[in-house]
Amino acid sequence: MGLLRNLLTRTGLLPEPITRTPEHQAEIDRQTDMLVLFCFAECPYCYRVQRAIRRLNLNVALRDIHHDPVAHDELLRGGGKEQVPCLRIEEPDGGTVWLYESADIVRFLRQRFS
Ligand SMILES: N[C@@H](CCC(=O)N[C@@H](CS)C(=O)NCC(=O)O)C(=O)O
After folding, report:
1. 91 C-alpha to center of ligand 1: Å?
2. Coil, strand, or helix at residue 52?
3. Could you give the number of structural domains in the chain?
4. Among the atoms of ligand 1, which is closest to the Cα of residue 100?
5. Residue nearest to atom 11 of ligand 1 (CA)
6. CATH number of the domain that residue 31 is part of
7. What percent of the chain shows pLDDT beyond 90?
8. By alpha-carbon position, which residue is closest to atom 12 of ligand 1?
9. Does 43 fall in a domain?
């Protein structure tokens, strides 16, 4: 592990991902295929959610609305507002939930994937 990475991990800035058996991770990966996080790089609330994603070792697709105009339009049309972070959840029954608020997104991810 590099020095910087080591320092960031020890100070809690870069949380160590939890580990799972390959089978369990594959099942989690299958479930997280249904998730997309709309965000942008300079947003501290997005960083908070991305830390949780890293900690929980989730493969969640990221869409940067400042660099992806299609993602920007999708968020606005689907979620109803331009605010990030927003987690798009495609439910097994075909429904779609647009979950705003970093604290609510982190709570959802922890409840579902801890
Ligand atoms: N309370 C929200 C705050 C999110 C927020 O303020 N995001 C900013 C970017 S850092 C944003 O999207 N602002 C544009 C807007 O609200 O329309 C959270 O915790 O997620």
Report:
1. 24
2. helix
3. 1
4. 20
5. 83
6. 3.40.30.10
7. 86
8. 83
9. yes
